Amino acid sequence: MKRGFIYLICSLLYCGCFQQKDSYVQKHYENVDNYMKARQRLVQAELELRFDAGIKLSPAEEEANNKLLELKQAEIERTKNYFPPANSYLKSETRQQIEQSPILDIMKRLPKGGILHVHGVAMGDFLWLIQHVTYLPNCYIYKGAEEPPRKGSMRIFSEPPGDEWFLVSNLRKEADDVEKFDQELYQSITLGEEDLGQSDIWAEFSKCFARFFGLLNDDTIWEEYSRKMLKDLISENIQYIESRGTAGDQDVIEEIRQDFPEFGVGYIAANGRSESRESVAKTLDRILDWRVKDPTRIIGYDLVEEEDKMHTNLFYIKELLQARHKAEQRNTTLPLYLHSGESNWIENENVLDAILLGTKRIGHGIALFKHPLLMQIVKERDIAIEVCPISNQVLGYVADLRNHPAVHYINSGLPVIICPDDPAIWKSTFSHDFYAAFMAWGLDLRCLKQLAMNSLIYSAMDSEKKEKALEYWRGEWAKFITWLNNY
After folding, report:
1. Which is nearest to 404 in space by CA: 430, 432, 351, 442?
2. Backbone angles phi, psi at 353, to 5 degrees
């Protein structure tokens, strides 16, 4: 009797679910009003799957949302003949259109929370490097063979480095047009319209790092650069950073915190995918030593560089599993934040291995949408996806950002975070990524609020620090809503 009763209840629930789903589409609609009601039910059902479904806006937020959507519609109308997110960010017209937009002003004011996917030195001001560092009397540029070092590499030397290295100051004096000379230096360490025809944009991207990195090998310059970089980020309403690669030495960070005590920086160590297994194993051992002494010094580990041409996650599986075993033996942990799925290929299986390895977040995850089971696991395990819109477009993965897989992730309820990746190289800021996402992905104020909160919720901070960070962010959000309603 009991089993029969349970079967009856389950049958009713089962039939109820089918009836509810089937009720969206009817064989006959009595009239237009009846059709519109069915249509609204279907629209609402879809919205309830979205990642921000749990957010309820206050009356003030509703007012701000209505204003924001009006401005968005005006922006769509303004850009109907040239919609920026549908065109490469490297095009001058794309950047010009965005710079003229009131939406960008709003994104600058938006309290963004944290940046969880960025490569340290590539989030600063490269124009500052050209205008200040290359004017130093001991700045040299390499004009020799392509490799090694990279042709066009700039570096600070205390003594003349030898043949094929030339003082930038001398070359500038010899130039017919100093402004053009400096512009060419700037172009050599960034990507722009002149690079749209490159057959391998990743190769040119890598050259940018090689050319500018030596400008930061002087301690004083590095301090000045990182100080400006961090202050610029704070002015853009960013309160926390987790960087692949250093984002400034501890003295500079502590100095910044004197004026902005809520600001914080975490460091994710990484190896390049071009490195050997032995090199990765040595790095992992060093990371474990550091985490045993101070778990806050390095918050996790990643593998970087181009996925499709370099080694896979699986290539390093022995080293990663051994490191995790050593971590358990030493009573510590090895959190992983793996670049995975930054690829156009279905054959790319890095997301699969990242999930099996227990990655805390997935970097980029562009290829994830091709794997429905993996998507389901990511949602169930609450693994956040670090989405970098402009980076994904510039590096050739999504030509039109309206077609970015992140739209699918957001509408399916997966946790998504917006990130800038290497903004200095494509001459953008974090606000430009928010502009692109907001305009291209059908977002509203609820989504923006969820994205900002996700950047703190899915950070590596402990629960106490997260709550303090969220408390501070809520105060800044309230100020933003007041500002937007008076915009």
Report:
1. 442
2. -70, -35
Q: What is the DSSP letter of 336?
A: B
Render the burial of 225-256: b for 16+ CB within 10 Å, e for the rest: bbbebbeebbebbbbbbbbbbbbbeeebbeeb
- Cα–Cα distance list, 199 to 12, 28, 331 (Å): 60, 55, 48
Specify the pLDDT at position 150: 78
Q: In sequence order, which residues have a C-beta less than 8 Å from that of residue 167 and are 6 or more positions away?
A: 137, 138, 139, 140
How crowded is residue 202: how many other Cβ atoms within 10 Å of its Cβ? 15
pLDDT reported for residue 22: 54
- Average pLDDT, rounded, for the chain: 93
Model-level pTM greater than 0.85? yes
149 prior amide bond cis, ω within 30: yes
For residue 148, the model assigns a pLDDT of 66
Query: What span, in angstroms and rounded, lies between the C-alpha atoms of 483 and 478?
Result: 9
Whether 341 and 362 have beta carbons less than 8 Å apart is answered as yes
- Angstrom distance (rounded) from CA 439 to CA 434: 8
pLDDT the model gives residue 149: 64
Enumerate the β-bridge partners of residue 243: 118, 267
CB-based contacts of 178, cutoff 8 Å, min separation 6: 172
Tell me what pLDDT residue 165 has.
Answer: 94
- Written as one letter, the residue type at 382 is D
Q: Which residues of the chain have pLDDT under 70?
A: 1-23, 147-149
Rounded (10°) angle between helices 59-78 and 445-457: 110
pLDDT at residue 73, as a whole number: 98
**Residues acting as catalytic residues:** 342, 364
Q: Are 348 and 374 in contact (CB under 8 A)?
A: no
Give me 96's structure tokens: 């010009």
